[in-house]
Amino acid sequence: MNVYDFSATTMTGTEKSLADYQGNVLLIVNTASECGFTPQFDGLQKLYDAYKDQGFEVLGFPCNQFNNQDPGSNEEIASFCEQNYGVSFPMFSKVEVKGDNAHPLFVHLTQQAKGMLTKNIKWNFTKFLINKQGEVIERYAPQTKPESLKTDINSAINM
């Protein structure tokens, strides 16, 4: 099983198969609009701009499970991301990333790449780098700045 076996709902309510991204390197991130790490949207957008023509996608998944830091509707979140950070990479509908109602994609991601202490996602902006075969190759902590991922992204693109 790999990430291409999953689907998710887009911000506009359409179900999208992640198989549509097959052959691309992916960075899957649980995001939040009112978090101390929210400025990372800027870095994520810069990565997307820099590598999108080389088969790289950033996939954002808003989550309100950490201190109620993304309480808005999907429309409000999309508008906020676009207006404040120029986000043009794919954003999906709000999901849960831990617990009984965790989205199956995030259950899979956390099983494939455990965190430092447990497999659970501890906070917003946890990042998962996925290779062209749909396999998790790295998990990054929330405080890891997107710009520090360039070497790993380049390596994954050139594999």
Account of the protein in words:
- The protein is an alpha+beta fold and 159 residues long.
- Helix content is 26%, strand content 18%.
- It contains four helices and six strands.
- It has a four-stranded mixed sheet with strand order 4-3-5-6, with helices on one face.
- The longest helix is centred in the first third of the chain and has 12 residues, at 40-51.
- The protein is globular, with a radius of gyration of 14 Å.
- The mean pLDDT is 93.
Short note summarizing the structure:
This protein has 159 residues and is of the alpha+beta class. It has four helices and six strands.
Main sheet: strand order:
4-3-5-6
Distance between the termini: 20 Å
β-strand number? 6
Structural class: alpha+beta
Number of helices: 4
| Proportion of residues in extended strands | 15-25%
Approximately how much helix is present in the residues?
25-40%
Mean pLDDT: 93
* Radius of gyration, whole Å: 14 Å
Report the sheet with the most strands, covering strand number, pairing sense and barrel closure.
4 strands, mixed
Low-confidence runs = none
* Global geometry: globular
Quaternary form: single chain
Summarize the helix and strand pattern as letters. EEEHEHHEEH
